[in-house]
Amino acid sequence: xxxxxxxTQLSERQRDGYYRQRTCVDYERDxxxxxxxxxxxxxxxxxxxxxxxxxxxxxxxxxxxxxFGAGSGxxxxxxxxxxxxxELEAYLAEGLxxxxxxxxxxxxxxxxxxxxxxFANAGxxxxxxxxxxxxxxxxxxxxxxxxxFAHNNTGHLSNLLxxxxxxxxxxxxxxxxxxxxxxxxxxxxxxxxxxxxxxxxLDDAHAFGVTGQHGLGSVEHFGxxxxxxxxxxxxxxxxxxxxxxFIAGSHALIxxxxxxxRHYIYSTAFPxxxxxxxxxxxxxxxxxxxxxxxxxNINYFKTRxxxxxxxxxxxxxxxxxxxxxxxxxxxxxxxxxxxxxxxVPAMRHxxxxxxxxxxxxxLSAVHTAKDIDALIDAMVLVREESGRGID
Length: 391
Ligand SMILES: Cc1ncc(COP(=O)(O)O)c(C=O)c1O
Fold this sequence. Notes:
The chain has two domains: 18-47 and 289-386, Aspartate Aminotransferase, domain 1 (Alpha-Beta Complex), CATH 3.90.1150.10; 55-287, Aspartate Aminotransferase, domain 2. The chain has a seven-stranded mixed sheet, sandwiched between helices. The protein has a four-stranded mixed sheet with strand order 1-2-3-12. The model has no long low-confidence stretch (mean pLDDT 96). By secondary structure, the protein is α/β, with parallel strands linked by helices. It is 43% helix and 16% strand. The protein has helices spanning 5-16, 55-68, 76-80, 83-96, 107-118, 133-141, 154-162, 186-195, 218-221, 251-260, 262-265, 272-287, 290-307, 327-339, 369-386; strands at 25-29, 32-35, 38-42, 100-104, 124-128, 145-149, 169-174, 199-203, 231-235, 245-249, 319-323, 342-343, 346-347, 358-362. The radius of gyration is 21 Å and the shape is globular. It contains 15 helices and 14 strands. The longest helix is centred in the last third of the chain and has 18 residues, at 290-307. Pyridoxal-5'-phosphate is lined by residues 106-108, 111, 132, 134, 174, 178, 203, 205-206, 235, 237, 245.
């Protein structure tokens, strides 16, 4: 039978506890999510600053719609690139101390584009073992040979680099890892890449908007120049509350991507109104008080979780994973928390390595101390009822 693998592979996923289904959200706002008519405290969103519903961001989007229309109308090299896109690029380039910036429809597309365009013929990519699937898929599909170094292990990276020969080598890591919430030792990473004459790329999806004096992410937080980190990727769909992504770097890099990145050239540009709203969101990030609220919540969650003996990973970010270890149990914990009015998604293989199936708690500026208390109390109760796990 044609395409028989479809049913076989789906049954395998079901058998192993890794089958995925979508959850349709009725409504989400101010830390509350409604699903199938039930309301929950939401600990599963990447809207770290609560900007998705910020009145100013919404108003800016509406004004953008009135000025530019609903969509961009074309791909960027045809007529889809507007003054709103250009303004957002210039704003980012200046803030990040980069020559230039290029906007993409998503972080997935941006990561794929870098891999495809820079490694169309040859080269070597050295990626942290826990890099996001959007980068790893891109690297695998490129003509580069992909080598993965143990998570945050610059010694292992150095060994791999010592044995390499290509004149086209890229080290890739994340500012804040999407599933573990931790960060690499950036200074050592920069030195290691530098010593071996490699470029460094940081996927800053989860740090952009959150860390750094003005919230501009790892580049600002660690003072990384364009020579330290040649490719910066950031997304707008998480802390900024809108959607889309960017690559920042040298004039030559951006010009090259404009000419060779197929994900950029052959895709309709995102709506100019989205760029207008994103500029507004960036202003909120730099001047608003949301980041301070988020950091207070992170500290409060960690202190309470530690005092209850809940085992956390070494994360100081809004992503606070609680490892369960088996897919069925991770789902069970998530369901038990939902029964108590708390929405905490379970993350299972292949999104995370086998045996590290987990709850992925994400904190936001919109949470109150009482919300966090409710979460911790429920986790403790579920742990007691289950007799094992979450510690
Ligand atoms: C680390 C990381 N990189 C890239 C992406 C992809 O970004 P986007 O959701 O904008 O496609 C994500 C998010 O899903 C991510 O967590």
